[in-house]
Amino acid sequence: MQEKKHTTSEHSPSDWLPITRKEVEAKGWEALDVIIISGDAYVDHPAFGSAVIGRILESEGLRVAIVPQPNWKDDLRDFKKMGTPRLFFGVTSGCMDSMINHYTASKRRRSTDAYTPGGEAGFRPDYATIVYTKILKKLYPEIPVLIGGIEASLRRVTHYDYWEDKLFPSILELSGADMLVYGMGEPPLREIIRLLNKGVPFASLKTIPQTAILHPRDEPLPVNKSWEDVTLFSHARCMRNKTSFAANFKIIEQESNKVKARRIIQGVGDHHLIVNPPYPPMVEKQIDASFDLPYTRKPHPKYDKRGSVPAYEMIRFSINMHRGCFGGCSFCTISAHQGKFIASRSEESILKEVEKVTQMDDFKGYISDLGGPSANMYGMKGKVQSICDRCVSPSCIHPVVCSNLDTSHKAMTQIYKKVDANPKVKKAFVGSGIRYDLLADSYNKDADESVDEYMEQLVTRHVCGRLKVAPEHTSDNTLKVMRKPSFKHFHNFKEKYDRINKKHGLNQPLIPYFISSHPGSEMEDMANLAAETKDLGFRLEQVQDFTPTPMTVATIIYYTGLHPYTLKPVYAARSKKEKKNQHLFFFWYKRENQDMIREKLQKLGRADLIEKLVGEKKRFNKQELLKGKRRKAATQQNKKRKFSKKKFK
Q1: Which candidate in 119, 337, 441, 484 could, as Cys together with 479 as Cys, close a disulfide (CB 3.0–4.6 Å)?
Q2: pLDDT tens digits along 440-481
Q3: What 3-state class would DSSP assign to 586?
Q4: pTM for the whole thing?
Q5: Which residues contact 8 (CB under 8 A, 6 or more apart)?
């Protein structure tokens, strides 16, 4: 069958923000106020950051254009075609860090790019924010450059770069940008525009919340009497001393997740990096205003002949109900960018978007996702706000569910039912991952009856064949490092899930996600994971090798060997061999892996797992197994000695 091309018949090109000079002139504009440079193709949808920022600027009365995926290799005509903006250039690498977009966990170059028409790779550079900004500062040295998006957010302070295997200073220092907006950019951006329109020079915008700047060390710090300051170890000190770098992260993470945070100061060369405290979490009216902007919800028509944008195909009929995640997982960057506090849209705004989706010309009655970063956190917040105001914990559900957290699922269930009642909707699925621990009676012990009602509604009406959950590991020691609950709670959830499926005559398997080589995970832990998941009837598909990304606890451990909260040693698989050995156990069922698995388990002295995974009742050389046990004991003893003597330089 020939692939159907998406039409834009219900829209005219003028409904999109302009991406060509011809479109700018068609609007009757002689000049622009802001020009956005983006590493993604322009998809006018609230799930795409450059579209959101462009529409926010438009709503402030500005003339704005987007230059998507400019060619950085030729004569730079793409950077020149829109002319000089009145206020500033905005730069983003796109919806992903460009290095994660380009490379696998094993540092192999990806052959596709989900944010480019036709999925073609090669339309953005590595370290895109830095490359774009340097070009703009060379071409337009007098025009301010404001950087934002996830790449800028995660690299706002000294950070470890996995791809170069070294520490980098703030991306402000690397790029030469004038200001950085981190996190969800709507509130700081509106304030920046308000002040610029009042005539305040860009260079004077030094105390706007949720922004970062470089400030000369020999000048007094900008004054805001409402803020307290906290000083990090300098970038130079971090380069010399891994312990200092690890210690910095605890401060950074806690301040990023506080309602009333301190201003962060860090020495970088001849400057102070100043990271101003974030805005409070967006209230319902603010987040509604962002989602209710006049998006066409489609890629720009210029891409019609180049093929669809894969990332758009995944979300084109989806609804994002909230932002933020209070899980605080050690390997996840959501809280560093969106924050741990949940910003939920109103029911009215969500249902209005559902109605808009049903009117799309190629809608067939199926909404692919009613969700968010974690699908079942909509509407959740603290019972007593003053307790949340004092909290410094990066997670509201680890090591236990906070007694001040209202985990009622009633609001979500109500929305699901109202979407179901829309006569144009045949099915509305929950495609985002859910937090199963909030639904497990053994873990969320203060859950009310709304949890069971939600489970019934979810399982019977909103699972698209299979349900995705993320236990991530089975080892309690590894899960503790991950800030995830014990695997025994997954058993509890699975029993509950299977019971509801059986009750309604449904066959909807669980699809669990797992990570290998996560800090804290050793090869034997992976062998146990393979055995335990095999006992549950899983042949794992949704698996990945840990990828160190800036601004996560797990990445700090990977680089320094220390947990940033305790400064005590934690094992991390770093070499290709170590990582490959761990990943191997995911695929115990592949015949070509079984000899290697047998050999490794024999060295570990785990004859019980050899029989369980390879499925052979075979006599093993007792002397070899005894040697394996002794070798394992000696290895553990050596590690203890090594960590007790090691000096982190």
Answers
A1: 484
A2: 999 999 999 999 999 999 999 999 999 999 999 999 999 999
A3: helix
A4: 0.92
A5: 296, 298, 301, 304
